[in-house]
Task: inverse folding
């Protein structure tokens, strides 16, 4: 910073949150519910002050989130199942993305998240339980927006560009996830758990510099390979000298699956196909021991 510019102007973004819900018990086993809410959320610090400087962003404003959930739950001695449909809309979302040597400040983004989630727990006997969690999402960015970028070497000059983000898939998280668990209780205090998860409909995060030309409208980010993971856990609860202890052994990624956990889109090749993304891989097989003392 230059002399006299060491302190920033104070910015105030009052926020709010409101959520209301209704539940109706049809009978002793069945209930239906609805919830809706609205949140006004202050922008991140990196959007309030641009280009990592003390210069305030006069265009910064609160992000607005509207949510709705509707679902049904069934409970019995044998089975618990909850099915939920959700629809969330995010307006005026702001993000800062660094693409060397440029820093992109993007405001006014909107995103639509909707999907169905199912959670189930089956208890056929005292020694065994089975659980499942299913999530089928449809998440995409909304209409095109204007953004600015400046060079990391000269942060005083900003250039305004239009980003053609309408319809781009939201990245960084699988939109389809299924998890199944088997829990066995062979003796008092001992629990063995096996969980198998399936992940699909997984996309890289978009690269702003690749969507500044109108010809990129409608072209989507690269889709990443689906992957499955298997984890095995065992724990034993015991009491020693009046103190509760839990010993655990954990085999993570038991199949030693090679999978991607994070990816950044790198645009397109000359033939219009997606370039290879910049990725980070998940950890291979791991074995861990745990020890817990209740005090």
Result:
């Amino acid at each position: 910073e230059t002399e006299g510019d060491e302190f920033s102007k104070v910015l105030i973004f009052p926020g709010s949150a409101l959520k209301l819900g209704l539940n109706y018990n049809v009978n002793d086993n069945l209930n239906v519910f609805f919830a809706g809410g609205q949140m006004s959320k202050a922008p991140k610090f990196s959007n309030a002050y641009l280009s990592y400087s003390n210069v305030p962003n006069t265009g910064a404003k609160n992000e607005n989130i509207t949510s709705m959930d509707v679902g049904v739950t069934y409970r019995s001695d044998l089975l618990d199942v909850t099915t939920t449909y959700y629809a969330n809309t995010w307006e005026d979302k702001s993000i800062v993305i660094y693409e060397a040597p440029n820093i992109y400040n993007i405001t006014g983004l909107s995103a639509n998240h909707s999907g169905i989630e199912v959670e189930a727990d089956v208890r056929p006997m005292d020694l065994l339980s089975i659980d499942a969690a299913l999530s089928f999402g449809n998440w995409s960015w909304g209409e095109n927006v204007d953004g600015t970028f400046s060079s990391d070497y000269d942060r005083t000059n900003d250039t305004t560009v239009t980003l053609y983000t309408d319809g781009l898939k939201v990245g960084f998280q699988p939109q389809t996830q299924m998890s199944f668990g088997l829990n066995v209780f062979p003796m008092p205090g001992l629990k063995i758990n096996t969980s198998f998860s399936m992940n699909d409909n997984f996309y890289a995060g978009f690269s702003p510099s690749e969507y500044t030309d109108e010809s990129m409208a409608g072209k989507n980010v690269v889709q990443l390979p689906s992957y499955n993971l298997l984890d095995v856990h065992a724990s034993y609860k015991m009491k020693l000298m009046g103190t509760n202890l839990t010993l655990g052994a954990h085999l993570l990624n038991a199949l030693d699956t090679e999978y991607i956990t994070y990816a950044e889109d790198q645009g397109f090749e000359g033939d219009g196909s997606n370039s290879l993304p910049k990725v980070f891989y998940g950890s291979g097989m791991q074995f861990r021991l745990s020890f817990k003392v209740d005090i």
The two ends are 51 Å apart (CA to CA). The longest strand covers residues 102-125. Residues 45-48 form the longest helix (4 residues). Residues 252 and 286 are 5 Å apart (CA to CA).
